[in-house]
Design a protein that fits this description.
Layout lengths: L1 E2 L33 E9 L2 E8 L12 H17 L6 E2 L10 H10 L2 E2 L12 H15 L10 H17 L3 H20 L6
Parallel strand pairs: 4-5
Antiparallel strand pairs: 1-2, 2-3
Length: 199
C-alpha cells in the first residue's frame, strides 16, 4: 500500500533537552484520517524485478477492499505464468496474509502445479518482499517529494501515486534483490531449526 503523506521513512532529530518542543524539532504527522492510497502486488526473483501491478478494490466485497478474486485476476493470472511456467526449479513464496489463503488463490496455484514455499504462521519477517516495499516507498518520495503534500481530486492523486510507484520500481537495483534472494537459504534454515518459531 502506498499512501499520500506516508512512506517518507523515519525522521531523526538531534536536539537539546530545552529544544524538545521546538517547532524546528518536530516532524508533523499530517492528517491522521484516511488518505489517498493505492494497493500494489509485486514480485521479484534471482533475475531482478519481475512484475508489479496496482490493485483496485473489489466492488463486490462488503468493504470494497482488495480480495482474493482481484489478486487472482489482476496479478496471479497475468504475471505468474510468465515467470513460473516451464520453471519447475522455481519456488513461489508469499506470506501468510489472510487474502493469500483465499480458496480461489490456493486452488489456482494448485491447479497450475507451482512449487509453493510452506509458510510458518509466526515468521512474517521471513518474506524478503517486505524489504523491497520499504525501499520502494522511500524511492517514491525521493523521486517525487511533491506527492507528500499533493492536493486535488482523489483520482488525479491516485494516478500520480501509481506513476511514481512504477517509476520507483524500475530504480530498484538488481544487486539489492540478489542480496535478498541469497539470504533466503539462511533464513529458511533458521526457521526450520526453530521449528517455525521466531528466529
Amino acid at each position: 500500500m502506498v499512501e499520500r503523506r506516508s512512506g517518507k521513512g523515519q525522521v531523526w532529530v538531534f536536539r537539546t533537552l530545552q529544544e524538545k518542543w521546538s517547532q524546528d524539532c518536530i516532524e508533523p504527522r499530517g492528517d491522521l484520517k484516511k488518505d489517498v492510497k493505492v494497493m500494489f502486488w509485486g514480485c521479484f526473483g534471482g533475475t531482478g524485478v519481475m512484475g508489479l501491478t496496482d490493485l483496485a478494490g473489489d466492488p463486490e466485497s462488503k468493504r470494497g477492499g482488495v480480495t482474493g478474486r482481484i489478486i487472482l485476476e489482476s496479478a496471479f493470472k497475468k504475471i505468474l505464468p510468465q515467470i513460473l511456467n516451464g520453471h519447475l526449479d522455481l519456488t513461489f513464496m508469499q506470506d501468510g496474509a489472510g487474502v493469500h489463503k483465499r480458496r480461489e488463490l490456493v486452488a489456482w496455484l494448485k491447479e497450475k502445479g507451482y512449487n509453493i514455499l510452506e509458510w510458518p504462521p509466526y515468521s512474517s519477517d521471513l518474506n524478503p518482499i517486505e524489504h523491497v516495499w520499504a525501499k520502494l516507498k522511500k524511492l517514491v518520495y525521493q523521486l517525487h517529494p511533491e506527492l507528500y503534500t499533493a492536493e486535488g481530486p482523489e483520482d488525479v492523486i491516485m494516478e500520480k501515486i501509481k506513476g511514481a510507484v512504477y517509476e520507483a520500481w524500475e530504480h530498484i537495483s538488481d544487486e539489492f534483490l540478489y542480496s535478498l534472494v541469497d539470504s533466503m537459504h539462511e533464513w529458511v534454515k533458521a526457521v526450520r531449526k526453530a521449528r517455525g518459531g521466531y528466529t
